[in-house]
Write a structure and sequence with these properties.
Blueprint lengths: L2 E5 L2 E4 L4 E8 L7 E7 L6 E7 L5 E3 L7 E6 L4 E6 L8 E8 L3 H11 L7 E2 L3 E6 L1
Parallel strand pairs: 2-11
Antiparallel strand pairs: 1-3, 3-8, 4-5, 4-9, 5-6, 7-8, 9-10, 9-11
Length: 132
């Protein structure tokens, strides 16, 4: 059974940092891309970025790349989202999701479609609240 479990969310003051984790099981981690998406109350899902686990190549939304960094630890089947200089508008539920792409395939796909990825599997999300 494929599972994605997010952790690391919580309450943080504006200007602070958090690192979220997404631990995967039930599939060959290195063959997949893992993305992060967030959703604030009353708003549509917002794509943050993704990483391919085979080579660590990363792709970001232009609005996120300055403060957010995605990395992975293949030995732990875990992808991280480091968030710095957090703002109240970053308050949302943060989800990780997995898509079965080869690394080159993901690069080509991103060139054409950006982060409009149809993910195969989703975690349940972790709440991040940034206080002012």
């Amino acid at each position: 059974e494929v599972q994605l479990v997010e952790s690391g969310g919580g309450l943080v003051q504006a200007g602070g940092s958090l690192r979220l984790s997404c631990t995967a099981s039930g599939f060959a981690f290195g063959d997949w891309a893992i993305g992060w998406v967030r959703q604030a109350p009353g708003k549509e899902r917002e794509k943050i970025g993704c990483i391919h686990n085979s080579d660590g190549s990363t792709y970001y939304s232009n609005s996120m790349k300055d403060r957010f960094t995605i990395s992975r630890d293949n030995a732990k089947n875990t992808v991280y989202l480091q968030m710095n200089s957090l703002k109240p508008e970053d308050t949302a539920v943060y989800y990780c999701a997995a898509a079965h792409f080869g690394a080159r395939e993901l690069a080509d796909y991103y060139s054409d479609y950006g982060l409009e990825i149809d993910y195969d599997h989703w975690g349940r999300g972790t709440q991040v609240t940034v206080s002012s």
